Amino acid sequence: MVIQEHVILLNDQGEVLGTQEKYAAHTSHTPLHLAFSSWLFRPTGECLVTRRAMSKKAWPGVWTNSVCGHPQMGETVEQAIIRRCRYEIGAEIATITAIAPGFRYRETDPSGIVENEICPVFAAEIVSSLKINSDEVMEYQWVELDALLRALNAAPWAFSPWMAAEAASAEHQLRQFAAELAQ
């Protein structure tokens, strides 16, 4: 069952102001809202990188971190991450860990759609096989974290702007999470 998603509107202090339908909210004047971003790893420490489907309203066809989304009213961020992982990539996850809980960004895609989010960043372990939802993800790749971080440093424009910014601000935490999984 697909629910009609909303975004939780926030003020600059992160206090809830209300909700708005997700697609109506994302325009050239997108209000500040709550989101999440997740970096998913295999037990070997490899990171899942996904390419957004061409049907996505913002940044279609762009390579990005594993799964992103918006918590719904009454849902914890961790519950939202689990829900979106099941929906987008058909995967079960464990060890959900906040790695950049205060992350916030505002970016405009080439078509003029703005993302304006308080977007805590998480890492988690994938504990099942993938079943990719082609409405969300057009391609995916497992990448060694060191190679991914080098690519992000060399060509940040080749990835979503939030992914590049998250990697820059949480590189140590990403490396630590991947290393602990691989032990």
State the shape: globular
CATH superfamily grouping: Nucleoside Triphosphate Pyrophosphohydrolase
Order of H and E elements: EEHEEEEEHEEEEEHH
Helix- and strand-based class?
alpha+beta
The low-confidence parts are: none
Q: Enumerate how many helices there are, as a single number.
A: 4
CATH architecture term: Alpha-Beta Complex
Helix content percent band: 25-40%
Portion in strands:
25-35%
Identify the notable features of this structure and list them briefly.
Nucleoside Triphosphate Pyrophosphohydrolase; four-stranded mixed β-sheet; three-stranded mixed β-sheet; 4 helices; 27% helix; globular; manganese; EC 5.3.3.2; Idi_bact; isomerase
Notes on the structure:
β9 and β10 form a beta hairpin. Helix content is 27%, strand content 34%. It contains four helices and twelve strands. The protein starts with 5 loop residues before the first strand and ends with a helix. It has 183 residues and is of the alpha+beta class. It has a single domain, classed as Nucleoside Triphosphate Pyrophosphohydrolase (Alpha-Beta Complex). The mean pLDDT is 96. The chain is globular. The longest helix has 22 residues. Homodimer. It comes from Kosakonia quasisacchari. It holds the Pfam family NUDIX.
